[in-house]
Amino acid sequence: MDSLIVVINALPAIAAGGVVTVGTVAVSLALGFVLGTPLAVCQVYGCAAARRLAEIYVWFFRGVPILVLLFLFYGLFIALNLPAAPFLICSVTLGMTSTAYQSQIYRGAIQSLPKGQLNAARALGMGDKTAVACIILPQALRLSIPGFANEFSILLKDSAICFVLGAQDIMARAGFVAARTHEHLALYAAAGLLYFALTHIVVKLLLRLERHFRIPDYAVEGGGRS
Amino acid sequence: MMADLLRVEGIGKTLGGRRILNDCALSVNRGDLKVLIGPSGAGKSTLLQCINCLIPPDEGEIWLDGERLDRTNSAELCAFRAHVGMIFQDFNLFDHLPAGENVAIALRRVRGFSRAQARERALTELARVGLVDRAHLYPAQLSGGQRQRVAIARALAMDPRVILLDEPTSALDPELVGEVLSVIQELARGGMTMIMATHQVEFARVLATEILFMEHGVIIERGAPEALLAEGRASRTRDFCARLAEFRIND
Fold first, then answer.
1. What is the pLDDT of residues B170-203, one digit of tens each?
2. Does the pLDDT value for residue B230 go beyond 90?
3. How far is A98 from chain B (nearest CA, A)?
4. Could you give the domains of chain B?
5. Do B138 and A119 touch (CB under 8 A)?
6. pTM of the entire structure?
7. Contacts of B84 in chain A (CB under 8 A)
8. What is the signed CA dihedral for B26, B30, B32, B35, rounded to 10 degrees?
C-alpha cells in the first residue's frame, strides 16, 4: 500500500520526466530524418567520395555504444565551449546516432524501388534532384514507415540512458524518488509502464500514418498480404 | 543532312566487357516511323536508351534539329530529354501517383506549368488515349494496356519532337496488345516522329517508313518494309520475320 502511495505521489514528477523524454526523442527523430534522408540519397546516388563519407559516418555511429557517444559529445561540447545543457547534448547525440540508423532504412527503401522509376523521370527531362524529390523519395519514405516505427521504439528506450548526463527524463525522476524512498520495484515498474505506453501509442499512430499514405492496390514485389 | 530531326552516329557501348552496340547510326525525318527489329539481346533496347542517354553511350554523337548534344552538360541533357519522349516495355508509371498526376508532374516540374494548367493538359492527353475517366486511378488499379496508354499520354504531354518506343507491347497480355498498337498507329497517322523497337512484324510492315534489322549490336540491314520483306527477297530481316511467324503458328 505504501508503494502505491509513493508511486501516486511521484506521478507528477515522472510525468514531467515523460515530457523531457518525449521532447528528446522527438528532436532526435526529427534530426535523424532531416539528416538521414540526404545521407541515404548520398549513399545511393552520390559520387564515390560522398558514398565513402556517408559509409564512414554510419560505420562510426553504429559501431560505438550510445553511452560512450553521450560522454564523448559531453566532452566535445565542453571542449568547444558550447552550452552543455543535458537536453541539448542528449538530443544531438541520439539524433546523430538515429541519423545513421534512419539512413539505412531509407537507403534500403530507395534501393528496393524498380530502376525504371528513375529512368522514367529522367526520360521526361527531370534533373536528378527533381527526380529524387518528386518520384523516388515519396515512394521510398512510404516504404520506410514500418522501419521508422521500429527506429522510434528503439530510440525511445535508448533515451533512458540520458540520465547519466543529468537529463531530467522518466528514468532520472524515477531514480531520484527511488533513492529517497527505496521503493525501487514500484517506481521502476511505473517508469517501465510509461515507456511501454508511449511506445504503444506512437507505434499505433505510425501504423495509421502508414495506412493513410498507402498507395491503393500497390504491392511491392514479394511483399506480404495487401 | 542537317535537315534530319534526330540523327545519331557511331553509337557504341561496352557493358561488363561485352560489346553491346557497335557503330550504330540512324536518322529520322519529321513524321518518320523507324522500326528496330531483331532477336532478343540484339541491342535494340540499349540503342534506344543510348539515344536519350539513359544509358550513356561510350562513343558516338547525337544531333537534335541539327544541334549536337553535349551530354556532359546536365542542363542541356535534361532539355534534350524533355524533347525526346520515351515509352518503356514495362511502362514505368510513377506508382505513387494517380494516372492524371503521372501525366501532369513533368509538366509542372520540367515545363513550369501551374497545377491547374498541368491538370487540364493531363486530362486532354488522357482523353487522347481514351482514359480520361481513369485519371484518378493509380497504376496498380489499371490493366497493362491502360498503363501503357497512360505512359503514352505522359510522353505526349511534353510535346516531344520524337518518341522512342522500347517494345511497348512486349509486357502485355495478347488481348491488350491491340489497344496500345492502335494508339501508336493513330500517332503515326497524325505525323508523330517515332523510333520503335518491336516484334510486331505486321505493324512494322504496314506503318514503318524504314525497318532497321539489328543483330549482335549492329544494324545489319535497313530499308523500306516492302523492300526488306518482299516475297522471294533473301534478306536477314525476312528470315527473322518468317521465323517469328512460324513460331507463332506452332505456339
1. 999 999 999 999 999 999 999 999 999 999 999 9
2. no
3. 27
4. 27-250 (3.40.50.300)
5. no
6. 0.91
7. 123
8. 40
The strand pair at B162-166 and B194-197 is best described as parallel
CATH code, domain with A79: 1.10.3720.10
Domain that holds residue A196: 2-212
Domain assignment of residue A217, yes or no: no
Which residues, 6+ apart, have CB-to-CB distance to B90 below 8 Å?
Answer: A114, A116, B171
User: Are A121 and B88 an interchain contact pair (Cβ–Cβ within 8 Å)?
Assistant: no
ipTM for this prediction: 0.93
Of B93, B140, B158, Cβ closest to residue A217? B140
Do the bridges between strand B59-64 and strand B6-15 make them parallel or antiparallel, or are there none, so unpaired?
antiparallel
User: Which residues on chain A are in Cβ contact (under 8 Å) with B49?
Assistant: 119
Please count the structural domains in chain A: 1
A124 and B54 within 8 Å at the Cβ level: the answer is: no
Q: Which residue of A has its CA nearest to B142?
A: A217
A-chain CB neighbours of B110 within 8 Å are 124-126, 130
Contact A125 B79 (CB under 8 A): yes
Tell me the per-residue pLDDT of B34-88, one tens digit each, with 9 for 90 and over. 999 999 989 999 999 999 999 999 999 999 999 999 999 999 999 999 999 999 9
Distance between CA atoms of B51 and B45, rounded to whole angstroms? 10
User: Cβ contact (<8 Å) for A126 and B110?
Assistant: yes
The answer to whether position A220 is within a domain reads no
Identify whether the C-beta of residue A17 lies closer than 8 Å to the C-beta of residue A170: yes
| Residues of chain A contacting B92 with CB distance shorter than 8 Å | 114, 116-117, 119-120
Calculate the average pLDDT of chain B: 93
- Residue A23 inside a domain? The answer is yes
- CA A148 from centroid of its chain's CA atoms: 7
Residue A65 lies in a domain: yes
d(CA B55, CA B58): 9
